[in-house]
Design a protein that fits this description.
The complex is a heterodimer of chains A (about 600) and B (about 240). Chain A has 16 helices and 20 strands. Chain A has about 600 residues and is α/β, with parallel strands linked by helices. Among the domains of chain A are: about 110 residues, Flavocytochrome C3, Chain A, domain 1 (Alpha-Beta Complex); about 120 residues, Up-down Bundle (Methane Monooxygenase Hydroxylase, Chain G, domain 1), CATH 1.20.58. In chain A, the strands form five sheets. In chain A, strands 1, 2, 6, 7, 8, 9, 16 and 17 form an eight-stranded mixed sheet that branches. A four-stranded antiparallel sheet of chain A has the order 11-14-13-12. In chain A, strands 3-5-4 form a three-stranded antiparallel sheet. The longest helix of chain A has 25 residues. Chain A starts with 8 loop residues before the first strand and ends in a 13-residue tail after the last strand. Chain B is α+β, with helices and mostly antiparallel strands and about 240 residues long. Chain B folds into two domains: about 110 residues, Ubiquitin-like (UB roll); about 130 residues, Fumarate Reductase Iron-sulfur Protein, Chain B, domain 2, CATH 1.10.1060. Chain B is about 30% helix and about 15% strand. In chain B, the strands form two sheets. Chain B has a five-stranded mixed sheet with strand order 2-1-5-3-4. In chain B, a hairpin with a 2-residue loop joins strand 3 and strand 4. The radius of gyration of chain B is 20 Å and the shape is elongated. Classes of the chains: A alpha/beta (about 600), B alpha+beta (about 240). Chains A and B meet through helix 3, helix 4 and helix 10 of A and helix 1 and helix 4 of B. The structure holds flavin-adenine dinucleotide, iron/sulfur cluster and FE2/S2 (inorganic) cluster (FES). The site of FE2/S2 (inorganic) cluster (FES) has 12 residues of chain B, from loops. The site of iron/sulfur cluster has 15 residues of chain B, from helix 6.
């Protein structure tokens, strides 16, 4: 019986700490291996990370099956992102994509192959030849488990390099230290799930690769554990969050459940149909039809539903139809997602149309960084020494207002590597910070308060309400009214969260406690999202304001930064979009 | 599709153990409600945890069978909680932790011995050739040779369903052999011999008595027993 005893605190000292072991964290760890003493801290076993759920592919202009160029990829990325993309950053990503894919192959990734034995490629939404002429085969893939293969391959390479993992350790706070007149990173505080002990990691540098926060919405493709801890804890410590209003809804989530059916289903020939059996995307995107970018397809689906052409008992879905594809082809190219349909809907995708609806999928926004993964804390490009971020938790910004499919798996390997490399360089020329005692105090008192809480509020109820309100008021379509109402809800839920009571007061695998702490981050980030969205009185990419339906380049061609002060008041500021290689034009597909 | 609002009652019996309170495991019954339409055991566990008793501990993340977090013994057989349909199991569902790994709390076991066995088979591509700036070539037939074993999500359902493993946790177990197979039969790899030597040892592949439990347990449908047989044959025929 160790109940209510003082928490044990352990102290570690490293050159570098990586928070998260999905694709971005593992790629960064490969880069720092052998260069500096690195601890990889992850709340899940590395192979449980949600990178493993990614299905469709990773784009790179290899031109293995048809003519292609990284410049076309860049154009598509910028246009797909509705011109909110920082073009120099996207250029880095699209150029380095080719080497990144080849490197993964050399690491052993079992890509599907062409008859000549090269890496095979397929079509994906928004990826075109010669600046929008026609869809192009650019996505490198491994059946419909590309993310699984990336995660496994990177983990294998970490095993080969004997990377030092702290599995099932959850980072809950960061410490900054004063260094002369400026501040720098001092380390992080982690909670060990198996024991309830706290661990202070003193470190010259920390790279956050902690993934997304799609669990703030009811229908979501994201894992239960994607709760935005990394961005959330930095935001509480005054680091701004960028472009939070841009949250991607993927068109094809399994009805009600949100489990993803990859865009590859449409890349391989699947068709969306409304209740009349009509291929409605022909009306919305005459050239690329079902392969238009996600924001447009999600809005088209929602429009069909709102106008009474939906399917299902509540007419709140449309059909994804694969029944015309050859059965062997489905088994070879889309085995996993068709299995999901069999398991969770009891339907046979080779004959039955599949009810789908848009599902919360990907955070374009997050921790602002430059192309070396350095965290940028203001509009002027000032970096916080020692602080890095990469992957979905970061905002470089290569995805702008709407990410193209396959560009996230690319983002995590390209910027995971660049972040890891920059961090290794930084620690080589800096000293260990002086970290005062007691930096774990805040986390300790949060945990003690949570365990002692007697307010009677339930984590599950608050989370359900949050997910419902965000889905109804801040998802595919938004308005000033819906966002005002969402903000009031979130703020009320935050107050209720202060009165949460949990059942489990123990030290061993107390997920009652960690779920409560995770909900706190989700609530803070939901508030940041809603406040950013309410201010942006235009529609761009995934951010669709029904009361401001047009894009307004004169006033809104800029990134949002939202900052939370110590007293929890929020402030908005803006910074320019970088690059002018491509002038904004109307997005037609 | 039935109306989404239709609910069913489930009697969920969970083998519980709290190291801070209990001397030994004991059963607890929860009466929970889940959606009638294609709910899974994970939904019932969440209903118990979120609405009855927050002290119930189990791992989970993706909730659709791709992360490997939630292998458990469900009505006597190993499966993923997020894939086991309530309608296939009936109104009474029993759940306990997978066997053969040290129990920590409720449905949570210590996975470290499992991952140590995985690491022991050199689970990474070994090839000392300088590949240059292009990909290594691999024909679609060569790629197909090891496709099945690339699906593994390291959930441990196979290894912890193996009677040999229960009796001797020094045995590397099916999952480690599956992951060795993935590289042994990859045309780009050069270390098959090393891996086969490791698996030819006392705690290696010869412990397998072909009980087939592992193949039945695998939630990814990997032909685990066949993979083990192929590795045995490769050792016997002195390679490939
Ligand atoms: C179903 C699905 C399909 C997708 N398909 C594609 C696709 O085909 N192509 C594409 O390009 N993109 C796809 N995406 C998007 C892409 O997979 C993700 O954006 C990307 O994998 C995120 O990788 P990551 O490394 O940033 O984070 P993750 O893989 O989510 O990893 C997060 C890591 O952070 C750790 N962590 C989190 N919080 C903490 C904490 N507090 N302390 C310690 N560790 C912590 C976790 O343990 C985990 O290891 C898909 C996404 C989903 C959900
Ligand atoms: S072979 Fe199957 S059962 Fe065994 S660990 Fe891999 S996925 Fe799980
Ligand atoms: S929760 Fe991921 S496999 Fe079940």
């Amino acid at each position: 019986m160790r109940r209510f005893e003082a928490v044990n605190v352990h102290h570690h000292s490293y050159d570098a700490v990586i928070v998260g072991a999905g694709g971005a964290g593992l790629r960064a760890a490969i880069e720092t291996a052998g260069k500096c003493r690195t601890a990889v801290i992850t709340k899940l076993y590395p192979t449980r990370s949600h990178t493993g759920a990614a299905q469709g592919g990773m784009c790179a202009a290899l031109a293995n099956v048809e003519e292609d160029s990284w410049e076309w990829h860049l154009f598509d990325t910028v246009k797909g992102g509705d011109y909110l993309v920082d073009q120099p950053a996207a250029e880095v990503m699209c150029r380095e994509a080719i080497d990144a894919v080849i490197e993964l192959e050399h690491f052993g990734l079992p890509f599907n192959r062409t008859p000549e034995g090269r890496i095979d490629q397929r079509r994906f939404g928004g990826h075109t030849r010669n600046h929008g002429e026609a869809p192009v085969m650019r996505a490198c893939y491994s059946a419909d488990r590309t993310g699984h293969m990336i995660l496994q391959t990177l983990f294998q390479q970490c095993v080969a390099r004997d990377v030092n993992f702290f599995n099932e350790f959850q980072v809950l706070d960061i410490a900054f230290v004063q260094d002369g007149t400026s501040r720098r990173v001092g380390g992080v505080v982690a909670y060990e799930q198996a024991t309830g002990d706290l661990h202070v990691f003193r470190s010259k540098a920390v790279l956050f690769a902690s993934g997304g926060f799609g669990k703030m919405f009811r229908v979501s493709s994201n894992a239960h554990t994607l709760t935005g801890d990394g961005p959330g804890l930095l935001y509480r410590r005054g680091i701004p969050m960028q472009d939070m209003e841009f949250f991607q809804f993927h068109p094809t989530g399994i009805y009600k459940l949100g489990i993803l059916l990859s865009e590859a289903a449409r890349g391989e020939g699947g068709i969306l149909r409304n209740r009349d059996g009509e291929r409605f995307m022909e009306r919305y995107a005459p050239t690329v039809k079902d392969l238009a970018p996600r924001d447009m397809v999600a809005r088209a689906i929602q429009t069909e539903i709102l106008e009474g052409r939906g399917v299902g008992p509540d007419q709140d879905a449309v059909h994804l139809d694969l029944s015309h594809l050859p059965p062997e082809f489905i088994d070879a190219k889309l085995p996993d997602i068709t299995d999901f349909v069999r398991t969770y809907l009891g339907l046979e995708p080779k004959v039955d149309p599949i009810p789908i609806q848009p599902t919360a999928h990907y955070a374009m926004g997050g921790i602002p960084t430059n192309v070396d993964g350095e965290v940028v804390v203001d509009a002027g490009g000032t970096v916080m020494p020692g602080l890095y971020a990469a992957g979905e938790c970061a905002c470089v910004s290569v995805h702008g207002a709407n990410r193209l499919g396959t560009n996230s798996l690319l983002d995590i390997v390209v910027f995971g590597k660049r972040g890891g490399r920059a961090m290794a360089g930084f620690v080589a020329s800096s000293d260990l910070p002086d970290l005062a005692g007691g930096v774990e105090g805040d986390v300790r008192s949060r945990i003690e308060r949570m365990k002692a809480g007697s307010g009677g509020e339930s984590v599950a109820d608050i989370r359900d309400t949050l997910q419902n309100e965000m889905m109804d008021k801040a998802s595919v379509f938004r308005s000033a009214d819906s966002l005002r109402s969402a903000l009031a809800d979130v703020q009320e839920l935050r107050q209720r969260w202060d009165r949460v009571s949990i059942d489990d007061k123990g030290e061993t695998f107390n997920y009652d406690l960690t779920e409560a702490l995770e909900l706190g981050y989700l609530l803070d980030l939901a508030e940041a999202l809603v406040v950013s969205a309410a201010a942006r009185t235009e529609s761009r990419g995934a951010h669709m304001r029904v009361d401001h339906p047009g894009r307004d380049d004169a006033n809104w061609m800029k990134h949002t930064l939202v900052t939370r002060a110590a007293d929890a008041t929020l402030a908005l500021s803006y910074k320019p979009v970088l690059g002018d290689r491509y002038e904004p034009m109307e997005r037609k597909y | 599709m039935p109306e989404a609002a239709d609910m069913v009652d489930v009697e969920l019996r969970v083998k519980r153990y709290d190291p801070e309170r209990d001397n030994k495991p004991h059963w607890q019954t929860f009466h929970v409600q889940v959606k009638a339409f294609r709910s899974v055991v994970l939904d019932a566990l969440h209903a118990a945890k979120w609405h009855h008793d927050g002290t119930l501990s189990f791992r989970r993340s993706c909730a659709h069978g791709v992360c490997g977090s939630d292998a458990m013994v469900i009505n006597g057989a190993n499966d993923l909680a997020c894939q086991a349909l309530i309608e296939d199991l009936g109104p009474v569902v029993t759940v306990e932790a997978i066997r053969g790994l040290p129990l920590i709390k409720d449905l949570v076991v210590d996975m470290e011995p499992f991952f140590a066995q995985y690491r022991a088979v050199l689970p990474y591509l070994i090839n000392s050739d300088e590949p240059g700036y292009r990909e290594r070539l691999q024909s679609t037939e060569e790629r197909a040779r090891y496709d099945d074993t690339t699906k593994c999500i390291l959930c441990a359902a196979c290894t912890t369903s193996c009677p040999v493993y229960w009796g001797n946790t020094g045995y590397v177990g099916p999952a480690a052999i599956v992951n060795a197979h993935r590289f042994v039969f990859d045309s780009r790899d050069e270390a098959a011999e090393q891996r086969l030597d490791i698996l030819n040892h006392r705690s290696g592949v010869w412990r397998c008595r072909t009980a087939f439990n592992c193949s039945e347990a695998c939630p990814r449908g990997i032909k685990v027993t066949q993979a083990i047989e192929e590795v045995k044959r490769a050792i016997l025929l002195d390679r490939l």
